[in-house]
Amino acid sequence: MANNNDFQVDPMGIAYAKAMEILTYVGLATMLIPGVLYLFGISPFADVHDVAAHWGEPTSKFWEHIHHLEVHGYSWFLHYITNMDMLCIAGVAVLALVPLFSLIAAAAKAKGRYRPLMILLILEFAFAIVKPLILGGGGE
Amino acid sequence: MKKPQIFSKHWQVSVLMILAVLACISSVAFAAETAQTASGTAWWFWPLCMFFFTFTIGLIAPVSGVGGGVLFVPIATAFFPFSMDFVRGTGLIMAMMSAFSSTPHLMRKGLANLKLMTPILIVSTVTSILGGVLGLWITNEFPSGKYYLTIALGVVLFIIFVVMSKAKKLEFPEVKEQDAISKALDISGAWFEPNLNKVVRYKTTKMPVGLVAFAVVGLIAGMFGLGAGWANVPVLNMIMGAPIKVATSTSMAIITVNDAAACWIYISNGALLPLVLIPAVLGISIGAKIGAKIAEKAKPTFVRYLVMFILLMAGIIDIIKGLGGLGIIPKII
Fold first, then answer.
1. What sign has the CA pseudo-torsion B247, B252, B257, B261?
2. Half-sphere exposure of B201 toward its Cβ, with a 13 Å CA cutoff?
């Protein structure tokens, strides 16, 4: 009778899974803890009443109304990272890095044709991260 | 003798879910009343509504098999006061979060296949980034761009409705011959199927057609901040011949990369608001935990039909809202 031992899960997949599991916890904590503190009014950058008054506007106009902030690349939140709402957005950035590190972990285990393909994928992902810095965000 | 059951498990689950939805609606209504009497427009009212709304989505999503983002974006666009940019940014994070939490387990089981998703991702990552850029560019550069995008979202929802109603689920599709790419990359896999008590082995085919389909899906997912499970699964299952369990699991793994890549566009454009994001993530996380337990016990078909109905209604509302915004029809929403 067949059982679990009859097949082996691809080592690339296992490496991807392990990295994703650990890093997701880190990202979640970085996003949720400051986010909840912000909701309780601790060290905000954007006052919740101001946010509620303008949250119907497109992003560029919204941030212009909130502290006249110009949103380009990633400096707009990194510059104010001591504030809980901006730290929460940094947490989202940590979460968005999870697949990159998971792909790197998988590439280390990749063999044959998969190694260049994984490297290509990592480069594409890295381009997605640096694109706003090189070409500006959102085609503006 | 076995005692006859007056109500089947399906009925019990259905009643439980309806009660949960009603409880959420009553809480929101109560909150609305309190908020209005307190100060006219309390800042916490809509974030609180967002929490209950995403909690309800979390309950429904695992039972219906539809990703949270697909339900969240159209309904939030139609009924919440937030800019579509923030709604799409939040929708993308929600879809990403649910994919992150389930993919490691599915990969360890052999259900999500990294070999299968690698060539697909090389294509769809590029198009999902383009979709994110295009969506934000339209809303920010054109005064009425958001209305065109709302109409387009309504049309996409119609397409999702048609795909959901027409798509068949092929449990173990037979792949007689692999295409050249799939053969060269040795795209195959295996998992232990407890229902059959044996290891199921499979291979996939028609990679070139799949790549074109995933390019289009990636563009739409990035543009509207939708998770793309509704389209990924039929392509993997019906076109490429992956067994349904492999198709749903691999689709989830594809979403981890595609949505995270598109997410950077939203971060760099400031399209994330903790006041919207945190209640949404908390609501869907708690709701999905309960929803997953309900889904284990029963698969009520009616929930799937309910979701399809909601998507159809949201599609109609989005189109009416968009046309009203453009002045083509009187503004009624």
1. positive
2. 8
Q: Does residue A115 have a pLDDT over 70? A: yes
How many Cβ pairs within 8 Å bridge chains A and B? 227
Helix/strand/coil for B10: helix
Are residues B220 and B149 in contact, defined by beta-carbon separation less than 8 angstroms?
no
Buried b (16+ CB within 10 A) or exposed e, B224-246: bbbbbbbbbbbbbbbbbbbbbbb
Q: Hunting for tokens 């909840």 — which residue is that?
A: A36
Q: How confident is the model at residue A77 (pLDDT cuts 50, 70, 90)?
A: very high
Q: Which amino acid is at B240?
A: M
| B204 exposure class (CB count in 10 Å sphere: 0-12, 13-18, 19+) | buried
Tell me what pLDDT residue B11 has. 52
Contact by Cβ (8 Å): B294, B16: yes
pLDDT at residue number B134: 85
ipTM: 0.90
B273:A17 CB<8 A: no
Tokens of A72: 């380009």
User: Please, what's the b/e burial string for A100-134 (b: 16 or more CB within 10 A of its CB; e: otherwise)?
Assistant: bebbbbbbebbeeebeebbebbbebbebbbebbee
User: Across the interface, do A35 and B273 touch by the CB < 8 Å criterion?
Assistant: no
Cross-strand partners of B200 = B191
Res. A10: pLDDT tops 80: yes
All structural domains of chain A with their residue ranges: 11-139
Residue ranges in chain B whose pLDDT is less than 70? 1-41, 62-68, 225-227, 295-303, 332-333
pTM (2 d.p.): 0.80
Tell me the shortest Cα–Cα distance from B319 to chain A, in angstroms. Answer: 19
> Which letter does DSSP use for residue B201 in this model?
E
Q: Are B68 and B288 in contact (CB under 8 A)?
A: yes
Q: Helices (H) and strands (E) in chain B — how many of each? A: 12, 2
Complete DSSP assignment for A4-50: GGG----HHHHHHHHHHHHHHHHHHHHHHHHHHHHHTTSS-SS-HHH
By C-alpha distance, the chain A residue nearest B139 is A58
Asked if A98's CB is within 8 angstroms of B260's CB, the reply is yes
Interchain CB distance below 8 Å, A138 and B133:
yes
- CB B278, CB B50: distance < 8 Å: no
Per-residue pLDDT at B2: 46
CA of residue A67 relative to chain centroid, distance = 24
What is the distance between the alpha carbons of residues B328 and B187, in angstroms, rounded to a whole number?
Answer: 50
